[in-house]
Amino acid sequence: MKFIDSDQDLSLDQKKSYIKNFRVQLNTFEQALLLVNSMSVFGSDWSQYIIKYKLVKNIPKDFFGSDYWFNLEDEVRKIAIENSGCIRKEYNQDIDIFMRNYFEFSKHQLNVKIGFT
Length: 117
What we know:
Layout (H helix, E strand, L loop, with lengths): L1 H5 L5 H12 L4 H11 L7 H7 L19 H11 L1 H8 L3 H6 L17
């Protein structure tokens, strides 16, 4: 992540493309673990990448449950506030607009259509 992010010869779109290849290899549980790790002293460097490259955008908002003390959207918002300069620079957005478009899924659901031809 750090190697790609620091490469001066790559555009932001190229960096996003490379990092997307990393993210798609992570399942939902691994993305959740990455987010929780970023909140610790040992993983704090990851928070900037979580925001800049939307590393945990595939976690459904209710992944941790509605009654759990850990609110996914609130935690990502806290990280976004800490990295608000990056959001303004890279996305030309304020935090509210950025957060509205951050997550891919609003609910944890599996839509499966089974059909026979």
